[in-house]
Amino acid sequence: MWSFNKRDLRQLIFIIVFTLFYSSETYSNIGDFQGKIKILKEGIYDTLTVEIFIKDKFIRVDEYKKDKKPVRSFIANTSSGNIYLVSYQHKMYSLVKVNPSSSNNDVEIIKSENFIEVNGKKCYQWRVKDKASQTVTTYWVAKIEYNFEPKLFRILANAGSAIDEFVKMPQTPNIIPLKVVDRTRFRKLRSNLQIIEISSMKLSESLFKIPNGFSELISG
Q1: pLDDT tens by residue, 90-121
Q2: Where does the DUF4412 domain start and stop, copy by copy (predicted)?
């Protein structure tokens, strides 16, 4: 049987308390994602590569065509709620006006045990029927350790980006769709999105600023 004097006991208690405190602090920070999500979107007529950058309250969505030339970017601040659309062709930017009430809640969600593997992760099938737009979107979702998905929903839903289908999925913490298939009610394919990379990395705040030399387009 082990025996401890008072000094050893105090040291042991300190180590246990310190370990528990440190572990809880580390765990609580797991959801603070900073980095890049890369998506491939295949539509009926074209294919886009989309890169999403996330840092603290900032989100940036870059859209590229096959020639890897940037088409446009969405730069958003989740604190202010402001979203800016940046056009590289015209070297202009404008404030995106999003109507929060335009989010449609008239949807039916069907969760099943069907699953596939996407990038080595087991993904379960969620089918979302939107009665207003008469579309059926299939989400292949997986559990992740990062809790950044609700940010994307709140700020980018209805902004008109190339990842509308991706961000309109009903909000669920720590759940992300790794593959999204959007169809009409007649089962005709509209688009197919797939996450091909999630990279944790340090990002500069300059990435979330309007590029120099761009003029603001002010709508009436």
Answers
A1: 999 999 987 655 555 677 889 999 999 998 89
A2: 47-214
pLDDT recorded at residue 11:
45
CA distance 191 to 73: 20
* Domains parsed from the chain with CATH numbers: 35-208 (2.50.20.10)
| pLDDT score of 215 more than 70 | yes
Tokens of 4: 């401890």
Better-scored residue on pLDDT, 153 or 212:
212
pTM given for the model: 0.77
